[in-house]
Amino acid sequence: MKALCFGFAFTLFASTAQADMLSRWETSEEAIREQVLVLHGSGARYRDWTAADRNGKACLLSAMVQEFGRPAVESFIQELESTAARRMSYSDPFALSVDWARAAPLNRIQYDDVAPLAQACNSTF
Q: Distance of CA 99 to CAs 33, 49, 117, 121, Å?
């Protein structure tokens, strides 16, 4: 019984931690995208994540944690948050886009390794 309770508590904690990581990923990515558009001088707006996007990203996040480990994925999200926090200091949309794209490789998450995971989750990366 203790093992069952521990397993449930661990699953609940992991789900909560993963939901927090997903929310932080979404918030950071949307802030960066908006600033890229501002720097391009476009009045257009990136489409916010939909429920389908969120479900795909949740699947992808789970697969990334399994593939690369929680520390690497957490560091990737922290890098996105750092870039989002600095986004107003950029004067060039290309430089901001490069820093956004470098968040994964800086944390040993290679795009070639993520692509099949994203495809399996019907998501993008």
A: 12, 21, 22, 25
Can you give the C-alpha Rg of the chain in angstroms?
A: 16
Q: Which residues contact 64 (CB under 8 A, 6 or more apart)?
A: 73, 76, 109, 114, 117
Angle (deg, nearest 10), helices 2-40 and 93-102: 160
Residue 31 predicted with pLDDT over 80: yes
pLDDT band, residue 98 (cuts 50/70/90) = very high
pLDDT of residue 10: 42
Determine the Cα–Cα distance for residues 109 and 107; give it in Å rounded to an integer.
6
* Cβ pair 93, 40 in contact under 8 A: yes
User: Cα(63)–Cα(18) distance, rounded to whole angstroms?
Assistant: 11
Q: Give exposure, 84-110, as e/b (b: 16+ Cβ within 10 Å).
A: beebeebeebeebbebbeebbeebebe
pTM assigned to the model? 0.80
